[in-house]
Amino acid sequence: MPVKPGATIDPRATRARVLSSAVQLFYERGVHTVGVDEIAHHAGASKLTIYRNFGSKEGLVEAVLEYRSEHIHRWLVTRLEGVPAGRERVLALFDLLTRWYARDGYCGCAVVNAAVETRHLDGPVRQLPRAHLTRYRELLEELLAGAGAGRPETLARHLLILIEGATTITAIDGDPAAGHDARAAAEVLLDAACAA
Amino acid sequence: MPVKPGATIDPRATRARVLSSAVQLFYERGVHTVGVDEIAHHAGASKLTIYRNFGSKEGLVEAVLEYRSEHIHRWLVTRLEGVPAGRERVLALFDLLTRWYARDGYCGCAVVNAAVETRHLDGPVRQLPRAHLTRYRELLEELLAGAGAGRPETLARHLLILIEGATTITAIDGDPAAGHDARAAAEVLLDAACAA
DNA sequence: ACGAGACGGTACCGTACAGTACCTTCTCCT
DNA sequence: AGGAGAAGGTACTGTACGGTACCGTCTCGT
């Protein structure tokens, strides 16, 4: 059964299937411990299809990071739209993160993990995480400007440190308490920035 | 030349040489991308010596993590002894970290990196990083109790989040600014805890 | 209806890895 | 003096990986 008997051929769907499998497997077990064969098998695709679509394993990793970074950002923005702008919206971000930490199978941020797993300094696998952090900081800055905090770009950097710290710590000790801690610390920083 | 011509045989020195090479190579390039052969060659040892001393590659990784965790902890304690106890000593910790971030070849905390690289949930490669964080938190708690901060165990968790966040962010974007940011945020949290 | 393109399956290549076996040489301790 | 132990060198096994080649089959546009 070469092509998959009853389904219409759709290059974009095939690509998406491979990408989705790669996202899941890379996240669960790491970029270096998952082989292309396994991704192909998991996606019900052939290796050749992967190489036709992504060029190389590194190309696939790159696509996964792009996808995840975009997905996370859109997820946050969408969810925060339902919360009144201001201080409340900033704290809602931390609540979202805390809920994420409690999800089954949580093991950190895929983008950051991939950066840590790949020491190689050049290449998109290192540049994309940098861009990811930058975009994250810009989102925080917007939220903080909406909350009327003083020096929003400084506070944004501080809050991002809290976020990444809680993300990493929760991934290591498995206890989502760090989410609540990060939120509490963020409140203190917010209070100080609004009082000044 | 089987044993190394002019040197006295010292099992502990050989073990230390292997361990030192493993520490360096694992840190530079990651646990999964460095092979046992390369470590043996770098240490001027044979693979068999490695397996005699550490049992397996995982055993070597475990020994490396233990060594690094211990080393980091002792380094911090020793350096902080020279600083007067209290608020100043807490902030001195952040100064030490900032200096560490600026060091050439810095790419995060070896213990945390290994935990991130190894998703496998059981095994010492995951337990040791957990213990590492716990010990870190206890150290912070001591420092904070010495500074007369209210709720030192809560504040210790908050400061650890800042530390790990700055450690990760610096490893990704290469800019040691996160160290200064973490220190500034810690000051705010300290002020709030001492005022309360 | 027919060719082009997308696709899966299988097999393959070269390399690299973790781990083991065997032998030789050196240094200690008794 | 001589054995025990520590060590390095070489070679090996089995496996797994990234990547490629080839073939047969399916669907779609024209």
How would you describe this protein?
Two copies of one chain form a homodimer. The first copy, chain A, is mainly α. Helix content of chain A is 75%, strand content 0%. In chain A, helix 5 runs antiparallel to helix 9, helix 6 packs antiparallel against helix 7 and helix 8 runs antiparallel to helix 9. Chain A is elongated and about 60 Å long. Chain A starts with 10 loop residues before the first helix and ends with a helix. Chain A binds chain B through residues 28-30, 32-33, 107-108, 112-113, 115-119, 126, 129-130, 133-134, 154, 157-158, 160-166, 168-169, 171-173, 177-178, 181-182, 184-185, 188-189, 191-192, and chain B through 28-30, 32-33, 107-108, 112-113, 115-120, 126, 129-130, 133-134, 154, 157-158, 160-166, 168-169, 171-174, 177-178, 181-182, 184-185, 188-189, 191-192. Chain A binds a DNA duplex (30 and 30 nucleotides) through residues 1-5, 7-11, 14, 35-37, 40, 44-49, 51-52, 56-57.
What composes the largest sheet of chain A? none
| SSE sequence of chain A, one letter per element | HHHHHHHHH
Largest interface: A-B, 44 and 46 residues
Q: What does the overall shape of chain A look like?
A: elongated
Unreliable spans of chain A: none
Q: Whole-Å distance between the termini of chain A?
A: 69 Å
Summarize it:
Chain A has 196 residues and is mostly helical.
Which tags fit this structure?
DNA-binding; mainly alpha; 196 residues
What is the topological layout?
The structure is a homodimer of 196-residue chains.
Chain A: H1 11-29, H2 36-43, H3 47-54, H4 57-81, H5 87-101, H6 110-117, H7 124-146, H8 152-173, H9 177-195
The structure holds a DNA duplex (30 and 30 nucleotides).
